[in-house]
Amino acid sequence: MVDELALVVGLGNPGPKYEGNRHNAGFLVLDVLADRVGGRFKAHRGGADVLEGRLAGRRVVLAKPRGYMNTSGGPVAGTAKFYKVPPASIVVVHDELDLPFGTVRLKLGGGENGHNGLRSITKSLGTKDYHRVRFGVDRPPGRMDPADYVLRDFSATERKELGFELDRTADAVEALLSLGLEAAQNKFH
């Protein structure tokens, strides 16, 4: 994954209603990466807002699908096809209920853990073999429905640490791009 063009996708839902939601962690990390690249997202015909540039010494396309989370697959596959990026060079940044808030985990392939955005991407790409950068948002309290929980904003306590955790997650994406999966895992796990 070290020399070819990489597609880094952040998952979230469009519009101001969802901006601060836990489910938009991927979008939030992509905003940090866009600041590092030094550009702005532009609408692309593949169904995503994209930004081309260099990150961690690599050519990258940062992408935020314009549709809702559960339909992310079409825009991701369309953008990957347009830029001729194979699944092994795709990095998807997403929220993860099964990790404590702010925990970062990187992996290649695996299951979707009930994440509808990942399920849609896997179906559209025809493979699970793409990289994932998982941003922990923690489990919902009590008996709250996980779907309701991820569509709520980060708590006041979480917001105090959010900027730091998003930066650290962006660092993990850069490490994955420059060092490869195993070295990045050793650094961030």
TrEMBL record:
Its EC number is 3.1.1.29. Pfam families: Pept_tRNA_hydro. One of its GO terms (cellular component) is cytoplasm. It catalyses: an N-acyl-L-alpha-aminoacyl-tRNA + H2O = an N-acyl-L-amino acid + a tRNA + H(+). GO terms for molecular function: peptidyl-tRNA hydrolase activity; tRNA binding. InterPro entries: Pept_tRNA_hydro, Pept_tRNA_hydro_CS, Pept_tRNA_hydro_sf. SUPFAM superfamilies: Peptidyl-tRNA hydrolase-like. The record marks N13 as: Discriminates between blocked and unblocked aminoacyl-tRNA. It is found in: Cytoplasm. TRNA binds at Y18, Y68, N70, N116. The active site is at H23. One of its GO terms (biological process) is protein quality control for misfolded or incompletely synthesized proteins. Keywords: Cytoplasm, Hydrolase, RNA-binding, tRNA-binding. The keyword Ribonucleoprotein does not apply. Monomer. Catalyzes the release of premature peptidyl moieties from peptidyl-tRNA molecules trapped in stalled 50S ribosomal subunits, and thus maintains levels of free tRNAs and 50S ribosomes. Belongs to the PTH family. This is Peptidyl-tRNA hydrolase. The gene is spoV.
